[in-house]
Design brief:
about 240 residues, flat
Length: about 240
Amino acid sequence: MSDPKPIIWMRPEKSMRGPAPTHSREEIAAVAIKIADADGLEAASVRNIARNLDAGAMTLYRYLPTKEDLWAVMIDEATVFEPQEPTGDLRADLIVLARRRRQKFLRHPWLAPLLATRPIIGPNYLRGMERDLAVLGGCGLSIDDTIDVLNLIYSWVSGAVQAELTERANANESGVDRHSWRMRMKPYLVSLLATGEFPYLSKMTEAAEIAEADEQFETGLGIILGGIEARYSTSENNRSSTAD
C-alpha cells in the first residue's frame, strides 16, 4: 500500500501558492449542513454546495478534494464544542451528556449514521470527547470504566435517535403514524392473543401505552443510568471495604 494522504486537519487551509481562498472550510461546511439537514446527506453534493455559494463546482475541490474531506468538516462544524464542568454526580452529569448528544443528532439527522462509518474526526469532536472523559473522570471513574460507560451512552443515544428519526420519516412518507399503525394491526393481534398462546404479549398490549419520543428516551436513559450507578457504586464500596 502507498502512504496514505494526510487527513484534512493536517493540511493547510490556504495553499502557499496561488490566490487567497474565497471561501473557508467552515463556510462550505455550514452550507453543506444546511442542505443535509433539509434534504439528507446525499443532497449535500459538491454541485449543490457550489450552487448555494454561487461558485464553480471544480473550485470547491481545491478546498475539499474528496467526499471524506467534506464529511470531516461537516461533522466538525455540527459538533461545535459545548463546555460541561463535572459536578461529581455521575447520574446528573451523564443525563446532561446524553441529552446534549441526542439534541445534536436530532438537529442533524445525518450525523449519527455518518459517525457510525468511522469517519475522520476533527478538533471540535475531539474537544467534546475530552470534555466527556473529563466529566466522568471527575465523577471518580477510572479511564477504563469511563471508556466503557461512554461507549454505552454513545451507542444507546445513537440507536435511540436513529429509531426515532426512522419512525418520523416513515410517518411522513406513509401518512400513517404509530397510533394509526397499531389500530390497523389491532384486529390481527386480538385474534392471535385470543388463542392463549401469548400470555406475556397479552400483558404487554394491555399495559402498554404509546409514549412520546421524549418520554421513551428518558425512560430508557433512566434504566441505563440505574444500571451504571449500581455497578460503579458497588465497585466503589468494594474498593473502600478492601482499603479498610
